[in-house]
Each structure stands twice: as structure tokens, then as C-alpha cells.
Amino acid sequence: MKLKFILISTLILLASGVFAQVKFEVKVSKNTLGINERLRVDFEMNQDGDNFQPPNFQGFRVVGGPNQSISNSWINGRSSYSKTFSYFLSPTARGKFTIGQATIQMDGETYKTVPITVEVTAAVDQPKDGDNTDYLVNENIHLVAEISKTNPYLNEAITVVYKLYVSPETAVSGWREIDNPKFADFWSQNTDNKQFQVHEGTYQGKPYRYAILRSTVLYPQKTGKLEIEPLSLDVQVEVRTNRRDIFGRPFMSRVNKTVSAGTRTIDVKPLPAQTMPANFSGAVGKFDFKVKASKTKLDARESLEILVEVTGNGNLKLFKPPRLITPNNLEVYEPEFQEKVTTTDKGMRGSISENYTIIPQFKGNYPIKPLTFTYFDVESETYKTISSDEIIIEVENGPVTRESSSISAANLTKQPVILAEDQFKYIKLKPELKAINSAPFFKSPLFWSLLTGPLVLIPLFILIGKKRREFESDVEGKRLKKANRLARKYLSEAKKNSHNQKQFYESLERALHNYLKAKLSIETSEFSKERIHKFLLERKVEPQVSENFIAILKNCEYARYTPTTDGAIKQDYDKAVLVISTIDKQIA
Fold first, then answer.
1. I need a labelling partner for 548 at 20 to 30 A (CA). Which of 21, 155, 403, 533 fits?
2. Spatial separation of the C-alpha atoms in residues 537 and 205, rounded to whole Å
């Protein structure tokens, strides 16, 4: 009986040794964390091993570890063993990152952990670094985003100032930006901080020192509640501890800390729609407007320049001056656009202008109609309109028209002209004529050509007729080809400038406006995007196609001031070809 018991016990021990499995796995404290939080990673094994190799932790910085812990226990006659390597990580960027495979050797075999994915999001309002927090740092350093106005109008400038507050007991030796706000719904530009200075101030009622790290000017491009993403920094901090040396002086501890300004929300008000003038083009701020001619008296075929200029403070880079309208007898070249705008903490200021070169062809007086420019004044919250004076161009010498040497402002149609006497002097008045060959026509090469020619041409005419009938029956194909030719005609200038981002998007926007001007006989430069969208819908264009047209116009405005790629330029060109072709087929 005793021998039987010993045999059974031996078999049980052998079986437990055979079926015992080696476990080597990875565990994380959380699968999703903010960029200002910490992540704990544990590599656990149930047997001791050698040559432990951790992964490279791409996307993170190791701020603690490896910490090693070993546990042995004996419960109800069964023993258990556990060994853990722990790391504390701080994210360096947002995105999805993979904790790679760790390896260890046990009994001559190599074991690997399974990769695990962790997502790093924007900074959270109340970071919780449960396993490795430094409360002293949390209480002594703060990154704050101060917004000049939280309830602006559409296209009104606001300023975001990022300040780093540090208590007197703490010293900062350096920092780097690890997560920049994208400002997706804003036109944005950073203003230069020429001198980095430390100021004295208070934060939450306590004395602090602070430095202005960055100032950003924003122009909201949408209405409603918009979020301003947080700025996050990796700061090297020296903080006073409770430990002291033999002389009673406190020890300083250096740590790396991720601080964030937190997400801010603003509520953007729409511009008043009921009182909006028809010629409003989106200008918001305070502006002056003028139209000035370089000279008003000249001879025919001399040139003059007319400058249309808007100056002041506001969203100068987000609209264009009004287009100049001239009589048809004046030869007008495409205007040269000039932009002299600087951006400060209070927004854009400077001027934008279009300079027209004009060459009159005939003698007479030519009136240039007054132009009107409308903008929304934020201070008075009203629309204001400025009109220019009428300009009279006096052409003193040159050819004259038959009907009159003076063209009035009410009569701007084309006039018949008297041609100069030497206009056709290249035509010969005394031609040298030669007699026709008097050889017999019968059986001549011309005779046989005229006799056999129709027989040869009949099959060719049949083939051409067949192809023509096929072409005539393909109505949809003809409309598509015609629409594509029309689109490429208007977009040819943009395609030539595809190597230059700014010139490309200016040409693309001009092409879209010129297409609507030619197709619908309207001055689209005087319309807002909402009015263009409404006008297309009235002409039976599908809503999605009209929205695509407006989206391309918006891309032209944004892309002129933000970097883009050659692929994006080609994509915008192809979209423009498609939308013009589609509108041309659908328009009533």
C-alpha cells in the first residue's frame, strides 16, 4: 500500500512538471492616454530567465525603470513564482504606437511577448499618472493659454498667448514642443517674440515667474463652438525636495515633466445676414479704400496705371479688392496683385492692391465708374461702404470713332472705328498676271483626275458619313468632350503655374470666377460664396456639385498662405476640371 502511494505521488509530480507552461507576457496600465500622462509597462514571467531584452519603446521616453520585483508563494501545497520588469514611459507625440516584443531566455529557449498597441491622444484636463506622479512639479509649473476674446465674429482676429508659469522654488533648464495645435478651423500665424523675457506675476493668487513662449493670431473660418487644441511641452525641471545636506540646504531633483495648456473653446458669431450688402466680399476689420490713376491726360496708345487699394487692420489676406470696370475701347491687362501685410498680436495690418495697366486706342473722354468697397466694422458691429470718385481719362491725340470723340458713362458699348489710310497698304494694287496654258483639256491629267476622282471619293464619303452619324448619336459623349475642353481652357493658366503654389491658387481662383462670369454673365467677384452657391442652385445645379465648387474656392484661399504638396496641387486641379465639366452639363 505504501509503495503504491509513493508511485502515484511520483507520477503526479512528473505530470505537473510536464504540463507546466512557461508564461511571458506584457501588461500596460492603460491602452489610451493623454500626451501629458504616464504609461506603466510590466513584463511578467512565471519562471526565472536570463538575458532580458526590452523593446525600443518607439514614440515614448523612458522616465523610470526598469524596476524589478520577484514574488514567491506557497499556497495549499502549491508553489508559484513571478518576476516582473516595470518601465514608466512618457509619450513624445500623438498617434498610435506599438510596444514591441521583449525577449528572454529560459532553459535554452527564447520567449517573446506579443506586441501591444497604445493610443496617445491630446492632453487631458486632469492628468492622472497614478503609478509615477511628481506632486511637487504638478504644483509648481503650469502652461496657460490666454485668449484675447472668446466670442468673436467670423473672420475677426483673436490672439492666443501661451505662458509658462514657474514658482520661485522651481527652476526650468529647458523645454521642447512635443504637440502643436493644428488650428484646423482657423487661419493662423505665429507672431515673432523677438526677446525672450521673464516677468513677475501671479497665478491663482500666488507669486510666480512667467515667460511668453508663443503668440498666435487666429481668424475663425467657421461659426459656432470651435476648439483650440492644447500646446504640450516636455520641460526639464529642477524642483526642491524635502531632503537636506549637512548644512541644511535642500537637495534639488531634476525631472522631465509634460505640461499642457489644455483645450480651449470659443463661440464664433456669424456676421449679420439681414443687413449684409450684396457687394460684401468678406472683409472684417477697419479699412480705407481708394482708386488712383497715375495720369488722366494722355495720347492714344500710351499707357497709364490705375491702382485699386485697400489699407487698414483686418483679414487682409482673406479677400481681394473690388474689380475695376472700364469702357470697352480701353485695352486693360490683367492686374498685378500686391500684398504688403504684417501680422502682429493685434492681427493683420497693411495693404492689398491691384494695379491695372490701361492703353486707350482712340481719342476721346473715357469715364471710369466709381467703385464701392464694403466691410464689416467690428467696433460698431455694422457694415460700412466706401465709394471712390469717378475718374475721367482724357485721350487728346489719336484716331477717333465715327460717331463721337467722347464716350459717356452710360454708353460703354463697342463703337465702329475709322481705319487709318495706310491700314491695307500691304495689298498689291498692280498684280503681275500670266496667261493660262492653252494645252488641250481632253485626256489631260486634269481631265482624268476629274473623271476618276468622284469614284475614289465615294467610299471615303460613305465612311465619313458613318463616323459622323455615330458622332451625332453620341450626345452625352459630345457634351462631356465640350465640357472638358471648356474646363481646360479656363484652367490652362493655373496648370502653367503648377510649379508655384501661390500663383497656381491665384490662377485657379481667377479661372473659377471667370468661368461663372462667362457662363452666367455675372460678376462673381462681387458675390460671397453663399450667394454663388444660391445662384448655382437656382440654375438647376445639383447641391453637391455646387458645394464642391465652393470647397475649391475655399481651398484656393487657404492654400495661398499654408504649405501644401505637389500632389495636393494636382488633386485640386483635377477637382476643378471635374466640377467645371459637371456644372457645364447640368446648368440650365
1. 155
2. 58
H helices of 34-188, where? 135-140
Strand 304-314, strand 347-360: pairing: antiparallel
Who has greater pLDDT, 23 or 135?
23
Grid cell, residue 79, equals 508553489
Q: Cα–Cα distances in Å, from 118 out to 28, 38, 54, 213, 255? A: 9, 12, 16, 30, 24
Measured in degrees and rounded to the nearest 5, phi and psi for residue 493 equal: -65, -40
End-to-end CA distance of the chain: 105
Alpha-carbon distance of 253 to 570, in angstroms, equals 54
Which H or E run contains 247? none
Report the C-alpha gap between 99 and 58 in whole angstroms: 7
Regarding pTM above 0.70, the answer is no
Q: Could you tell me the three cell numbers for 298?
A: 494722355
Q: How confident is the model at residue 407 (pLDDT cuts 50, 70, 90)?
A: very low
C-alpha–C-alpha distance, residues 535 and 516, integer Å? 10
Cell output for 322:
473690388
Question: How many angstroms separate the CA atoms of 73 and 107, rounded?
Answer: 22
d(C-alpha 178, C-alpha 234), whole Å: 6
Q: Long-range contacts: 96-99, Cβ < 8 Å, 24+?
A: 96/120, 97/58, 97/59, 97/60, 98/58, 99/26, 99/28, 99/41, 99/55, 99/57
Considering only CA atoms, give the Rg of the chain.
39
Helices 543-559 and 566-586: angle between axes, nearest 10 degrees: 150
Rounded CA-CA distance 277/527 in Å is: 10
570 to 85, 451, 500, 509: CA distances (angstroms): 52, 57, 12, 15
SS3 state of residue 402: coil
Mean per-residue pLDDT over the chain, rounded: 79
| CA-to-CA dists, residue 12 to 75, 243, 379, angstroms | 17, 56, 90
Q: Position 150: which residue type?
A: T
Supply the pLDDT for residue 526: 57
How many contiguous H segments (helices) and E segments (strands) does the chain have? 9, 30
pLDDT band per the 50, 70, 90 thresholds, residue 16:
very low
Tell me the per-residue pLDDT of 83-110, one tens digit each, with 9 for 90 and over: 888 888 888 888 889 888 888 888 888 8
Beta strands 141-147; 364-368: pairing state: unpaired
For 302, the 3-state DSSP assignment is coil
Phi-psi sector, 16: left (phi>0), alpha (psi -120 to 50), beta: alpha
Integer Cα distance of 264 and 122 in angstroms = 12
Q: Is residue 507 within a helix (H) or strand (E), and if so which, with residue range?
A: helix 501-520
Read off the pLDDT of each residue in 186-190 and give the average, rounded to a whole number: 90
Residue 233 has pLDDT above 90, yes or no: no
With CA atoms as reference, report the closest residue to 152 among 64, 219, 78, 65: 219
Listed residue (314, 396, 298, 377) closest to 349, CA to CA: 314
259 vs 3 pLDDT, higher one = 259
Could you read off the pLDDT of 306-329 as tens digits, one per residue? 999 999 999 999 999 999 988 888
pLDDT value at position 310? 95
How far is it, in rounded angstroms, from Cα 258 to Cα 302? Answer: 67
